[in-house]
Amino acid sequence: MIILSAKDITVGYTEVDILHEVSIDVQAGEIVSIIGPNGAGKSTLLKTIFGILKPRNGKVTFKDWDITGLKPNMVVRKGISYVPQVDNVFPSMTIHENLEMGAFIRNDDYSQRLREVYDLFPVMAERKKQKVGQLSGGQRQMVAMGRALMLDPQVLLLDEPSAGLAPVLVSGIFEKIKDINATGVAIIIVEQNAREALKMAHHGYVLAMGRNVLDDAGDALLANEEVGRLYLGG
Hints:
Blueprint: E1 2-13, E2 16-27, E3 31-35, H1 42-49, E4 57-62, E5 65-66, H2 72-78, E6 80-83, H3 95-102, H4 111-120, H5 122-126, H6 137-149, E7 155-159, H7 167-182, E8 186-190, H8 194-199, E9 203-208, E10 211-217, H9 218-223, H10 225-231
Parallel strand pairs: 3-8, 3-9, 6-7, 7-8
Antiparallel strand pairs: 1-2, 1-4, 4-5, 9-10
């Protein structure tokens, strides 16, 4: 079942279009990886889905709702969370306070959800009183993902989760993404580490110059010689 769909999205900044009639579909519970060169419009697509940018043309649908151009504070209430590449945590606050901030729009008892997030990220439970600014880059990224999960989303948007991390930490982040997906959350991930992103993807999309170039199952894209030559380093 398709849970989220972006159809024929054309969007940009000021007068310059970055995406040109780009389309993606996301099935419930799957990981969708979006790869392509720098400047292809990958992050722009996530921002459009989340309502940060309003498309000039096209339509974004989540379940039975048309969310095209809906403000982010309303998109998140529908069941979509977003982890941007930068400025995705509150460094002066503790881990626990960051997670509480993630539940800012909830007016119910979210203690059970808090326990579930801590279960996903045991290292955060051990250090919950520690200020996030004192953590490593990989640990901060886990806090950012945990905070986004506090609203119990059905779709999680991840923008370059491995960016700037030491290679030894990258595999841990990808394992956590798979753990999150195993709980039933559909994930759209934009990632420069295209090979690893496709390895865990149920489906993948290749963008170039702001347009759809190719889409297929993740393993099929990994095996595609042209994709390997152009986007996976051979």
